[in-house]
């Protein structure tokens, strides 16, 4: 398991979601193994020894947004409620422990809370997440909490401005130092159409890797497919986008085989998009600024409350249509295909982006980069306006 | 023990003594409900005084127990567990089934029915909120399931045995009226041994929910996860194709047991895959009462179509690629009240032993002979271990603790290999259910060809599923939802606070109780063994996948690790003889 711990510690550093030197994992088989920052490793070990799960991660996030959200929350609250799709579907909400609640029994209190949830925020410590099945499972839960916190903080800051001492400076550091330019430059995409199965699999895997390495998405947030004739080659459910070799299912368009039961939950959406658009390549990811911006709506006095699934309007975001819809069999597959053909891109409320390519992945990759870039610019424009006004 | 009222549970046990013809209602102590939930857990707890009795001893109870979610709108929870000791394996045994019987039992006012004794004449037990009645089975004794159910369903939901149960076929089922089976370990034979042909239940008492708003929210959370799960509601998932959706996948993974596990790929499996069944029968959705998934499939005329394990074992395991013959075999087993997995696996072991697997057209006759214990069928009715021993080739029984292995070759998934052995009821895929992560990537994928971490994973999953079986919920729910959402449902219904960790601890208590019963009845590490074939012979590699024999030394290491994690001795036993005395 030590190799797994090393792998996912490196992941946390590579995706820049955790603070270097402030990461620890614990894993247990017949013995308990804790590794990383000594103080956090001790905490991880103590927490894990009272839980029925295989792994746990505790790390200080690279951005202070989680602590800010805790401190901004009313004193009566013990959880934050991000409204992005990942959280709504898989985490529901994120409980937290305030610094003063920890006392001398931090591990005990964290274990009590974490025994009921996939991930929690502990003020002053960071995000603590568990993995029932693997160390990777703990990493995914950490990553989901980090993503949720990121998006919620962006939205809260835009709505309310900065409320706490140090928040403005921290946000400036985030904007000027943490964020890096995203670009599609210099990536050698194959030009399509791709007919050879080996080429298709290699190209899907390469695009997935670039999507993560260029900071567009964290590794578990998205899926990719390519259609060749009657076959859709699509990344598997719960597959890391930067580890796709061996994790791509060939699925016949006519459902003549069910081997693809392990395919991404968005298989149906991909099929319908192919049918509607005539495209050959689909890239789907959850870039954070696009997710956040998709949840802003100017509509006043709208009777719809569950916008994420009930809204039947098609809004526009940086030239892309925005529609509502739950993942999997929940409506997204109905609402995206009708709007994606002409703009070659579409955004799903609180969820992410679909971009399509005529014959290859150069176009959808470029479009996703551009959209996230525009959403980032628009976010900061609105924030600056808010703060100056 | 605290006997204060509960919400969600009834707090009542119906005790039936068939020998005396009596029925009485007992209060179930609140501590037992809180600590064992219902279903499997409650049923296992109720065996504490009798677990050492022979499965056919009149004093051995047959328990039907529902769970605290039954009767509510909690997804997939209109289920019950039947619990006793298996005549096939000798282990404590439970099996979960859906249908309408479970919620009607709850609506009659009971959490559980415990049946002891042997009726002097074949009998029917009827349960309503007004009480219980016994009547003579009369001419129904000897009748197949369909006829029995049709004769009795006017009185409510029916759980019945067929000729296989009456004749004590060691893998006889109890069949629910809607076609669901309490299968595998032979509880139909236990019921037959009691001269009990059927139980009929009817009732209309509602189940209270402590916090309806919280319940509604938790239910929505579960449904959202179902919709996000490709295995459940995906275009290729079980709601669309039923469990035969797994046929193509197991073929592709090269782990479809073929010709009594001599090979792991069957060229003809495409004939009975999910799409093949859809094309041939244009099936309609069917399933358990109130279940949103509806994974079962039926013909337009209402005949139930076979599950994955059934098509694979009547198919590949016996070298048969005739879909219609497989469907007829399934239907016949259902009519006789006989477990399809054990029936097919017994035929395969017998077929290999005699040097020829049965032809498609022979199978129905053989199944009928089994059910009625005629001719060769009398031996086959004793299942594969006893058949193989009688043929002088005990190694040909592909079973663990005498329970035939289902259609997941352990050489293709090492967690499954371990789980078959550590399962308290023998070679069963549903206890730890590692197929979920080793093949279906839920909740995340694990390396199917590695033992790393598997001992801990299996232990956690066994505990988790013991809780799931006690709620009682369907395991398919957990291809999407987790204990987190089900703990919310449970808390909302009962008003008691439960969380995933707490449920896993309850599951551990149940699992360890079962293991203790088994150990006290003579089971130990020597029974946690896979057939030697899996350590000696490779599967059918190809298409870039190798299926080597399992590394026996590595397997043993992981099994010992499992015992350490469980706190057992290296012999798989308990060091504390008073283990049960410390439990509620």
Describe what you observe in this structure.
The complex is a heterodimer of chains A (389) and B (584). With 389 residues, chain A is of the alpha+beta class. Chain A is built from 15 helices and 15 strands. In chain A, the strands form 2 sheets. An 8-stranded mixed β-sheet of chain A has the order 10-9-8-11-15-14-13-12, sandwiched between helices. Chain B has a domain at 12-201: 4-Layer Sandwich (Aldehyde Ferredoxin Oxidoreductase,  A, domain 1), CATH 3.60.9. Chain B is built from 24 helices and 16 strands. The N and C termini of chain B lie close together (9 Å). The model of chain B has no long low-confidence stretch (mean pLDDT 97). At the A-B interface, helix 4, helix 7 and helix 10 of A face helix 7, helix 8, helix 10, helix 20 and helix 22 of B.
What's the short version?
The complex is a heterodimer of chains A (389) and B (584). With 389 residues, chain A is of the alpha+beta class.
Distance between the termini of chain B: 9 Å
Largest protein interface, residues of each chain: A-B, 49 and 56 residues
CATH class of the domain at 12-201 in chain B: Alpha Beta
Percent strand of chain A equals 15-25%
Strand order of the largest sheet of chain A: 10-9-8-11-15-14-13-12
List the strand order in the largest sheet of chain B. 2-1-6-3-4-5
- Helix content range of the residues of chain B, please? 25-40%
How would you name the CATH homologous superfamily of the domain at 12-201 in chain B?
Answer: Aldehyde ferredoxin oxidoreductase, N-terminal domain
Radius of gyration of chain A: 21 Å
**Largest sheet entry of chain A:** 8 strands, mixed
Give average pLDDT of chain A, whole number: 96
Helix/strand-derived category of chain A reads: alpha+beta
- Please outline the major beta sheet of chain B: 6 strands, mixed
Say how many strands of chain B there are. 16
Number of strands of chain A: 15
Q: Radius of gyration of chain B, rounded? A: 22 Å
What form of chain A results from the Cα inertia axes?
A: globular
Question: Can you tell me the residue ranges of chain A where pLDDT is under 50 for at least 5 consecutive residues?
Answer: none
Q: Quaternary arrangement of the chains shown?
A: heterodimer
Helix proportion of residues of chain A, in percent?
40-55%
Number of helices of chain B: 24
């Amino acid at each position: 398991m030590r190799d797994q711990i090393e792998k996912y510690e490196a992941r946390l550093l590579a995706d820049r979601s955790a603070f270097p030197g402030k990461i620890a994992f614990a894993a247990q088989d017949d013995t308990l193994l804790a590794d990383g920052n000594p103080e956090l490793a001790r905490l991880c070990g103590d927490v894990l020894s009272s839980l029925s799960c295989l792994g746990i991660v505790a790390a200080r996030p690279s951005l202070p947004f989680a602590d800010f959200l805790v401190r901004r929350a009313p004193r009566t609250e013990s959880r934050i409620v991000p409204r992005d799709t990942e959280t709504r579907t898989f985490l529901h909400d994120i409980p937290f422990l305030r610094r003063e609640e920890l006392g001398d029994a931090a591990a005990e209190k964290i274990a009590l809370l974490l025994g009921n949830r996939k991930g929690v925020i502990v003020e002053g410590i960071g995000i603590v997440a568990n993995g029932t099945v693997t160390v990777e499972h703990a990493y995914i839960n950490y990553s989901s909490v980090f993503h949720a916190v990121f998006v919620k903080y962006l939205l809260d800051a835009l709505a309310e401005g900065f409320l706490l001492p140090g928040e403005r400076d921290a946000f400036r550091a985030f904007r000027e130092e943490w964020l890096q330019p995203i670009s599609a430059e210099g990536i050698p995409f194959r030009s399509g159409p791709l007919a050879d199965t080996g080429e298709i699999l290699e190209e899907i895997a390469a695009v997935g890797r670039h999507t993560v390495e260029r900071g567009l998405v964290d590794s578990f947030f998205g899926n990719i497919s390519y259609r060749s004739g009657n076959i859709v080659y699509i990344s598997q459910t719960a597959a890391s986008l930067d580890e796709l070799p061996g994790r791509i299912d060939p699925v016949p368009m006519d459902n003549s085989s069910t081997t693809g039961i392990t395919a991404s939950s968005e298989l149906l959406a991909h099929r319908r998009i192919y049918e509607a658009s005539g495209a050959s390549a689909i890239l789907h990811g959850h870039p954070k600024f696009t997710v956040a911006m998709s949840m802003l709506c100017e509509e006043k006095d709208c009777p719809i409350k569950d916008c994420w699934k009930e809204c039947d309007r098609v809004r526009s975001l940086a030239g892309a249509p925005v529609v509502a819809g739950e993942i999997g069999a929940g409506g997204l597959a109905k609402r995206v295909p009708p709007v994606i053909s002409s703009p070659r891109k579409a955004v799903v409320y609180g969820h992410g982006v679909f971009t399509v390519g005529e014959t290859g992945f150069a176009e959808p990759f470029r479009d996703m980069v551009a959209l996230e870039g525009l959403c980032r610019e628009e976010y900061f424009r609105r924030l600056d306006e808010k703060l100056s006004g | 023990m605290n006997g204060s009222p509960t919400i969600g549970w009834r707090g009542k046990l119906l005790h039936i003594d068939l020998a005396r013809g009596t029925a009485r209602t007992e209060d179930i102590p609140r501590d037992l409900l809180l600590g064992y939930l219902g279903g499997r857990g409650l049923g296992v707890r109720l065996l504490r005084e009798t677990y050492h009795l022979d499965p056919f001893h009149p004093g051995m109870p047959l328990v039907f127990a529902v769970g605290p979610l039954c009767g509510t709108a909690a997804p997939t929870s209109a289920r019950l567990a039947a619990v006793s000791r298996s005549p096939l394996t000798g282990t404590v045994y439970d099996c979960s089934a859906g249908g309408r019987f479970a919620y009607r039992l709850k609506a009659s006012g009971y959490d559980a029915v415990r049946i002891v004794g042997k009726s002097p004449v074949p009998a029917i037990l009827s349960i309503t909120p007004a009480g219980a009645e016994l009547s003579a089975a009369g001419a129904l004794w000897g009748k197949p399931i369909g006829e029995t159910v049709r004769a009795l369903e006017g009185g409510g939901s029916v759980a019945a045995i067929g000729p296989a149960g009456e004749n004590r076929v060691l893998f006889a089922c109890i069949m629910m009226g809607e076609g669901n089976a309490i299968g595998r370990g032979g509880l139909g034979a236990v019921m037959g041994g009691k001269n009990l042909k059927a139980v009929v239940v009817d009732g209309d008492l509602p189940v209270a929910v402590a916090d309806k708003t919280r319940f509604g929210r938790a239910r929505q959370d579960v449904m959202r996860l179902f919709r996000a799960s490709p295995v459940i509601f995906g275009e290729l998932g079980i709601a669309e194709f039923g469990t035969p959706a797994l046929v193509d996948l197991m073929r592709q993974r090269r782990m479809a047991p073929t010709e009594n596990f001599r090979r792991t790929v069957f060229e003809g499996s495409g004939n009975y895959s999910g799409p093949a069944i859809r094309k041939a029968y244009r099936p309609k959705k069917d399933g358990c009462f109130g279940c949103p998934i509806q994974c079962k499939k039926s013909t337009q005329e209402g005949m139930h179509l076979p599950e994955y394990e059934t098509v694979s074992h009547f198919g590949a395991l016996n070298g048969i690629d005739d879909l219609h013959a497989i469907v007829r075999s399934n239907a016949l087993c259902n009519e006789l009240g006989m477990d399809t997995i054990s029936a097919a696996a017994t035929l395969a072991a017998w077929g290999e032993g005699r040097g020829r697997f049965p032809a498609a057209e022979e199978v129905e006759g053989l199944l009928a002979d089994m059910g009625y214990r005629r001719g060769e069928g009398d031996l086959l009715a004793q299942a594969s271990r006893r058949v193989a021993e009688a043929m002088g080739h005990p190694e040909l029984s592909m079973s663990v603790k005498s329970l035939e292995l289902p259609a997941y070759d352990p050489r293709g998934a090492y967690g499954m290999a371990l789980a078959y052995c550590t399962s308290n009821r023998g070679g069963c895929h549903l206890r730890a259910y590692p197929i979920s992560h080793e093949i279906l990537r839920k909740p995340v994928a694990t390396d199917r060809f590695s033992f790393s971490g598997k001992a801990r994973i299996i232990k956690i999953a066994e505990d988790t599923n013991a809780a799931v079986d006690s709620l009682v919920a369907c395991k398919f729910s957990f291809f999407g939802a987790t204990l987190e959402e089900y703990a919310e449902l449970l808390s909302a219904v009962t008003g008691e606070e439960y969380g995933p960790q707490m449920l896993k601890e309850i599951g551990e208590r149940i699992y360890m109780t079962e293991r203790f019963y088994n150990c006290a009845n003579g089971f130990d590490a020597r029974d946690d063994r896979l057939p030697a074939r899996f350590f000696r012979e490779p599967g059918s590699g190809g298409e870039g996948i190798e299926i080597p024999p399992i590394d026996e030394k590595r397997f043993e290491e992981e099994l010992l690790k499992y015992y350490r994690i469980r706190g057992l001795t290296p012999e798989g036993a308990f060091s504390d003889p008073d283990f049960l005395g410390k439990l509620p």
